[in-house]
């Protein structure tokens, strides 16, 4: 049975250097996805989204293993952030953005063997076991190709990201690129188990060449 470890197979996507911007190309991959609105610090929606995404992800993982399809490691949570006006948001914006202005898409990357039918079966299994997963119905499978992106590793508390984001924008402009998509974060640390100063977050911005 095939064993899949996306973090090892796509090492460049998951291990950028700290404080240095690099370019990566993110291929088309399936993701478990939930979209929502509201500040995760003041509303339950984001936490319920995380619960639903991982309930589905682990149920599919164990189901695929039992069926002899494949075995894989579940990847870390990712999220895109923006507001009602379309402006990208980072965690540094949370304190000054009202919950109604904040929009997000939470994602968990899946291996290519995952199908919509597997997700349907996983949802049915979760319901059968009568688990309390309020946002489960909102989870859907989406294939997304992010393409060429600039990214870096940030280490520290979420609210301290601003200087690193500014550094990324400076690098992007200086190297002839422009940002073409939403602010993207990949959370490598569990905030419940990791000291704020040791938290690791990949910061990613899709880019395109600027015509001179």
Automatic annotation (TrEMBL):
Annotated source species: Candidatus Cryosericum terrychapinii
Superkingdom of origin organism: Bacteria
InterPro entries: GyrI-like, Reg_factor_effector_dom_sf
Protein name: GyrI-like small molecule binding domain-containing protein
Domain GyrI-like small molecule binding: 21-207
């Amino acid at each position: 049975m095939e064993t899949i470890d996306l973090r090892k197979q796509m090492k460049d996507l998951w291990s950028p250097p700290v404080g240095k911007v690099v370019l990566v190309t993110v291929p088309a991959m399936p993701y478990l996805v939930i979209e929502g609105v509201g500040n995760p610090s003041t509303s339950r929606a984001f936490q319920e989204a995380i619960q639903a995404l991982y309930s589905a992800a682990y149920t599919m993982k164990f189901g695929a293993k039992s069926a002899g399809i494949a075995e894989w490691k579940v990847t870390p949570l990712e999220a895109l952030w923006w507001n009602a006006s379309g402006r990208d948001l980072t965690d540094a914006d949370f304190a000054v953005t009202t919950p109604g202005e904040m929009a997000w898409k939470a994602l968990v990357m899946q291996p290519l063997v995952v199908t919509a039918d597997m997700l349907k079966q996983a949802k049915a299994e979760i319901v059968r076991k009568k688990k309390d997963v309020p946002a489960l119905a909102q989870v859907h499978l989406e294939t997304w190709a992010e393409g060429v992106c600039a990214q870096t590793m940030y280490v520290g508390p979420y609210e301290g990201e601003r200087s690193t984001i500014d550094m990324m924008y400076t690098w992007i402009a200086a190297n002839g690129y422009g940002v073409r998509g939403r602010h993207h974060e990949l959370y490598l640390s569990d905030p419940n188990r990791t000291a704020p100063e040791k938290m690791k977050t990949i910061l990613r911005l899709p880019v395109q060449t600027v015509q001179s």
